[in-house]
TrEMBL record, chain A:
PROSITE patterns noted in UniProt: ADH_SHORT
Keywords: Oxidoreductase
GO molecular function, one term: oxidoreductase activity
Name under which the protein is recorded: 3-oxoacyl-ACP reductase
Family (UniProt): Belongs to the short-chain dehydrogenases/reductases (SDR) family.
Key word Oxidoreductase present: yes
Domain of life of the source: Bacteria
InterPro entries referenced in this protein's UniProt entry, alphabetically: NAD(P)-bd_dom_sf (IPR036291), Sc_DH/Rdtase_CS (IPR020904), SDR_fam (IPR002347)
Organism annotation: Methylobacterium variabile
Pfam families referenced in this protein's UniProt entry, alphabetically: adh_short_C2 (PF13561)
UniProtKB/TrEMBL annotation, chain B:
Pfam families: LuxC (PF05893)
Protein name: Acyl-CoA reductase
Family: Belongs to the LuxC family.
Species per Swiss-Prot/TrEMBL record: Methylobacterium variabile
Molecular function, one GO term: acyl-CoA dehydrogenase activity
SUPFAM superfamilies given in the database record: ALDH-like
UniProtKB keywords: NADP, Oxidoreductase
EC number: 1.2.1.50
């Protein structure tokens, strides 16, 4: 029960990796704030699963790029939970991962980049700004930002998405340097292609097979594969690790 | 470690005739048994007599330079990490005092290096325009001649809150050539005896003029002998201990008490830029951690000015993490039940305040859990100085202007001593002026609060000058003597 008496906010937790992280935290006794944007029913189902696993859960709607909504989220956590030990910035702007129909660079408008920056960096920025005062009431807080192994190895050049994730890694390292002295760690988890999720369902069999062939562990990631490293970085076992990017892609990217 | 460590130094008293009281100390998984000397009334009287006579016959005639040399050699032994005495000190003091090994090691070195020859000469120069007055009559500016001497028998009653603290007054007494008898503190009954023995080894004649013993405080007859025999009593401890002692000191005997103090620190907005605020918080944490705020000079409250790049609340967080990070290198010592209760009470008082206050962002913010080996409270409103729960508990008080601070600490005038200040020169002096006016006697940099410099003036007093009386040959006597000279015309 590594997360007993620990409160963790997981953004974008109504499905996919976020939902897997939330339920894994709950299974370790944690209190999970299941943040979602639209799908209240899915978020409530995740919260219900968390409770069934022995944890506590609170589903809270908030668009994490909206400062007012995040301020309300922060206030609710402060009032109803009273502490925050970790933040998992998992939410990102909607994106269609479709290798066959991805926009080429010359067809990618700046607005597409901006949308992804907002979904990755601005969301993390807004959430951390709002929740840092609560988190730093105790020494030993942890922030885990979900990046992508595409930053190190753009197997498929999703320009806007991957550039924004690269920016998120830079954001995280700077934050790690500044917040270390006040006891907050900041790390990234960079998954490879996670299948199946809503975002990855358009990745064709052929592409998946090609990735699998080049992956030493010979399969794609599942959402549960990602949850383990996220829990490691969110919890006390990684208390002397900060500013790192942990690749979770079966060895496709090394180092 | 099951050997019995003999405490004290008793010249002229046959060791086998001395009663002992065994006290076991336990910390860090080890036990050390200390045998404290327990003298009879007759032995106490004989000890005082021996020290008084040997001091009169030898110490009074020694040049100050010889005493300095002996203290210097004794300090050198305890500074030499390969010396058996130093090795023993590093092994036993953590167990006896409960302080972690690193704190003891660094603290010993920091204290003892203030007792080397150059520092001792500075100590003398600090109090005497011409230290030669301790060795013989020296010409006085107003005419005539003057010499100074310490009390014939000086009794020290030491406190054990900080290791090796006894050495300050012990050294001061020897420098003014006083026969010296010291009473060990139960909480740190070793260093003074070791130091005395090291002095005896360096200069056996000097060693005969110096005794270190113990008696049960308030235990009538034996204590009465020491208090009756002494010409001057220098005592450290809490106000109750001091008041009880003062009541028993004969009226003609000088009594020099050093009671409890409360320290604080101030951080100016110009010191709170993005680069320097973090390191400053680490220095403040050092002052809080070293000796667990048991020393009179440790900060219990930090006044932090608004308007810098780093706000007081953020500084509090820096401090909190610096305390958390330091705990892995310097673990907090095991707390007595009373100490743990004091921390819990201090915390819950602020918890109550936080609940009553204007909410988490407004009033009172308690950082850290009761289970953490530290606590920081951030108070967003100017708050008067008050004691912390000690043992790594500290309040960070936000103020608009550091000029307010003297008003906030003034109610504790009788208990003020050390203040740490981080501010630009002009403000340092302006603030120091205000603080001097309300009874602060020592201003240091952050990070140096628990390490007073060589020759410091404890509680603003002249450590050596306070001990001596002067004998003056007035000009009239000198002039009249000329008339009686064999060569008089």
């Amino acid at each position: 029960m590594r997360f007993r008496d620990r409160a963790v906010l997981v953004t974008g937790a109504s499905r996919g990796i976020g939902a897997a992280v939330a339920t894994a935290l709950a299974a370790e006794g944690g209190l999970v704030i299941v943040n979602y944007r639209q799908d209240a029913a899915a978020a409530e189902a995740v919260a219900e699963r968390c409770r069934a696993l022995g944890g506590q859960a609170l589903a809270v709607a908030a668009d994490v790029t909206d400062p007012a909504a995040v301020a309300a989220l922060a206030e609710r956590i402060a009032e109803e939970v009273g502490r925050l030990d970790a933040i998992v910035n998992n939410a990102f702007a909607p994106y269609r991962f479709d290798p066959d129909h991805r926009p080429r660079f010359r067809d990618t408008p700046w607005e597409a980049y901006q949308r992804q920056f907002d979904g990755a960096v601005r969301a993390a920025y807004t959430v951390v700004q709002a929740l840092l005062p609560l988190m730093t009431r105790r020494s030993g807080g942890s922030i885990v930002n979900l990046a992508s192994d595409l930053v190190a190895r753009p197997s498929i050049p999703y320009h806007d998405y991957t550039t924004a994730k690269a920016a998120l890694i830079g954001f995280s390292r700077n934050l790690a340097a500044e917040l270390g002295p006040i006891g907050v760690r900041v790390n990234c988890v960079a998954p490879g292609l996670v299948y199946p999720t809503a975002a990855s369902r358009d990745t064709p069999e052929e592409v998946r097979e090609a990735l699998i062939a080049q992956t030493p562990l010979r399969r794609l990631a599942t959402t549960e594969d990602v949850a383990g490293p996220v829990l490691f970085l969110a919890g006390d076992e990684s208390r002397f690790v900060t500013g790192q990017v942990l690749y979770v892609d079966g060895g496709l990217v090394m180092g | 470690m099951s050997d019995l460590e003999q405490a004290g130094h008793l010249p002229g008293i046959p060791a086998d005739a001395v009663g002992r009281r065994i006290v076991a100390h336990e910390a860090w998984g080890e036990t050390v048994a200390v045998a404290l000397p327990s003298l009879s009334e007759e032995q106490a009287k004989a000890l005082c007599g021996h020290v008084r006579i040997r001091a009169r016959d030898t110490l009074r005639r020694m040049e100050t330079a010889r005493i300095v040399a002996a203290i210097d050699r004794a300090s050198a032994c305890l500074l030499d990490r390969s010396h058996p005495l130093r090795r023993k000190a590093e092994a036993l003091l953590p167990v006896v005092t409960g302080y972690d090994r690193e704190t003891v090691r660094l603290g010993l070195t920091s204290t003892l290096k203030t007792f080397r020859r150059p520092q001792l000469l500075r100590f003398l120069a600090e109090d005497f325009f011409n230290p030669g007055v301790l060795d013989g009559f020296q010409p006085a500016v107003k005419g005539g001649f003057v010499r100074a001497q310490g009390p014939a028998l000086l009794l020290h009653v030491w406190a054990g809150n900080v290791p090796a603290l006894a050495l300050w007054s012990l050294v001061a007494g020897l420098l003014v050539k006083s026969g010296t008898v010291g009473k060990l503190a139960l909480a740190e009954p070793l260093t003074a005896g070791w130091f005395a023995r090291a002095i005896a080894e360096a200069d056996p004649e000097l060693g005969e003029c110096l005794a270190v013993t113990w008696w049960k405080g308030g235990a009538g007859a034996v204590e009465a002998v020491f208090l009756r025999e002494a010409d001057c009593v220098m005592a450290y401890g809490g106000n109750e201990t001091l008041a009880a002692l003062r009541a028993k000191v004969p009226v003609a005997t000088r009594f020099l008490p050093h009671g409890h103090r409360i320290g604080f620190a101030m951080v100016a907005r110009e010191a709170l830029d993005s680069r320097r605020a973090g390191p400053l918080a680490r220095l403040a944490a050092h002052d809080v951690v070293r000796y667990e705020q048991q020393g009179c000079y440790a900060p219990q409250m930090l006044f932090v000015e608004r308007g810098g790049a780093v706000a007081p609340g953020e500084f509090a967080r820096h401090l909190a993490h610096a305390l958390a990070a330091t705990a892995s290198r310097h673990p907090r010592r095991r707390l007595e039940a009373g100490e743990a209760a004091a921390i819990a009470a201090w915390r819950s008082a602020y918890e109550m305040r936080a609940l009553e206050g204007e909410g988490p962002s407004g009033g009172t913010e308690l950082l850290g859990d009761l289970a953490d080996p530290w606590s920081v409270v951030h108070l967003d409103a100017a708050t008067p100085l008050s004691p912390s729960g000690l043992n790594r508990t500290v309040a960070v008080v936000a103020v608009d202007d550091l000029a307010e601070v003297s008003g906030l600490v003034a109610p504790h005038r009788a208990y003020l001593q050390s203040a740490g200040i981080a501010a630009a020169p002009a403000r340092l002096f302006r603030l120091a002026d205000d603080l001097a006016g309300i009874g602060v006697t020592r201003i240091s940099a952050l990070g140096r609060m628990t390490a007073p410099e060589a020759g410091w003036h404890h509680d603003g007093r002249f450590s050596l000058l306070d001990l001596v009386t002067v004998t003056e040959i007035e000009h009239s006597a000198e002039a009249a003597a000329e008339g009686f000279a064999p060569y008089a015309d």
